[in-house]
Write a structure and sequence with these properties.
Elements: H1 4-68, H2 72-97
Helix pairs in contact: 1-2
Length: about 100
């Protein structure tokens, strides 16, 4: 037969377990939110890396065009043609990824 003291201890233990479960759920929710944020930030980083790569390619193209073409009119035409080729290559790469 349980005494009043044992019932009191059981009630205290039950209260602590309930508090621990509540704390666990809060921490779990925070962790899920952090994972979601990390996933979104990684997507942003990947997009920015792709933009940087594209800008570097454009810069390299400009350098090549300036080296090849002495006249500004030829330089612009050559730059446009190279950019067109690069866009086509990017389309092919995207198609191959899918």
């Amino acid at each position: 037969m349980s005494t009043g003291r044992e019932l009191e201890q059981m009630a205290i233990l039950e209260k602590r377990v309930t508090q621990l479960i509540a704390s666990y759920h809060e921490v779990r929710e925070s962790l899920d939110q952090a994972r979601y944020i990390i996933h979104n930030l990684q997507a942003v980083i990947d997009a920015k890396d792709e933009e940087i790569k594209n800008f570097q390619n454009r810069d390299n193209i400009s350098k090549i065009v300036n080296t090849i073409a002495a006249e500004p009119a030829n330089s612009t035409e050559l730059k446009l043609k190279i950019n067109e080729y690069i866009r086509e290559i990017d389309k092919c790469i995207a198609y191959l990824r899918d």
